[in-house]
Amino acid sequence: MSGTEPVRRTTRQRSAVLAVLDDLEQFRSAQEIHTELVRRGDSVGLSTVYRTLSALVADDDVDTLLRDDGETLYRRCHGETHHHHLVCRSCGATVEVDGPAVETWADRLAAEHGFDEVSHTLEIFGRCEKCRV
Question: Which of 46, 88, 36, 95 lies closest to 67, judged by CA?
Fold first, then answer.
C-alpha cells in the first residue's frame, strides 16, 4: 500500500462479511452474502454489504467474478499471488490456477502497445467432473 491510500479501520460489518467469506468455498453474490449475514444474526443492510465488499476488493482482500448475466460475485481466495479461476457453470465450483503463459502474453502485448502498470483478470468457465456425470 502506498502512502496515499487510506487505512481502512476494522468495523463490525467488515469483520462479519469477512467471516462469511471465510466460510464459503464458492463465489457468491452480495445478496447471498447479505442473506447469510442475516441468517447468522448480523443486522447489516444490503447497501453496507455492497460498500464493504467494494472496499475489500479495492484492498485486494476479495476477488470478483463477473457472471454472464452481469452480476458480480465475490470470494475470498486462498492464494497470496495473482491467479485465475476455473469456474463450473453448473454448480459454481471454483479452482484457483496459475497462468504463467497468460502473464507473459499480457506483459508482451502491453509493452508492444506502449502500456505499463497493466492488470487483467481471466476466468475460464466450463463444467466440472461432478456435474458431467
Answer: 88
Q: What is the dihedral of CA 78, 80, 85, 91, to 10 degrees?
A: 10
In a shared domain, residues 51 and 70 = yes
Q: How far apart are CA 90 and CA 68, in angstroms?
A: 13
Output the pLDDT for position 129.
Answer: 93
Q: What is the CATH number of the domain that holds 29?
A: 1.10.10.10
Number of domains in the chain: 2
- Across the chain, mean pLDDT equals 86
What does the pLDDT look like over 21-31, one tens digit per residue?
999 888 999 99
pTM summary value = 0.73
Dist CA 69 CA 9 (whole Å) = 33
The amino acid at residue 87 is: V
DSSP for 28-82 reads: EEHHHHHHHHHHTT----HHHHHHHHHHHHHTTSSEEEE-TTS-EEEE--S-SS-
pLDDT in tens, 51-71: 999 999 888 888 898 887 888
